[in-house]
Specification:
It comes from Chania multitudinisentens RB-25. The termini are far apart. The chain has two domains: 55 residues, no CATH class; 34 residues. By secondary structure, the chain is mostly helical. It is rod-shaped, with a radius of gyration of 26 Å. α1 crosses α2.
Length: 104
């Protein structure tokens, strides 16, 4: 089962998997597992990894800045700060309006 994982299990996770299989399925290290049992073990491993990752992950930002529009989030960070200023945004809208009127 460990060979099917994309990210290999560390020794602590291997011990946890072994203990879980022994308690839940009463199986040893060399006992073959059914597909349902394997899914259960993999689900248990991933939920433990997720719980461990949530405790270790620091917050992304101390002071998140609100965006004027969700599409601004798709731009690179250097353009986000420029476009988020109201004067630049008004100038950009005016330029687009002039181009639209000129074309049509």
């Amino acid at each position: 089962m460990l060979a099917t994982l994309k990210q290999s299990a560390d020794p602590q996770e291997q011990q946890q998997i072994s203990d879980y299989c022994q308690l839940r399925f009463n199986s040893g290290l060399n006992t073959p597992l059914t597909p349902v049992q394997m899914n259960d073990v993999i689900q248990q491993l991933f939920s433990r990894r997720l719980a461990k990752g949530e405790h270790a992950a620091p917050p992304h930002s101390e002071n998140p800045q609100p965006l004027f529009h969700p599409l601004i989030a798709m731009l690179p960070p250097s353009l986000q700060s420029t476009i988020s200023k109201p004067l630049v945004l008004i100038a950009l809208v005016l330029v687009l309006l002039v181009l639209f009127v000129w074309v049509f």
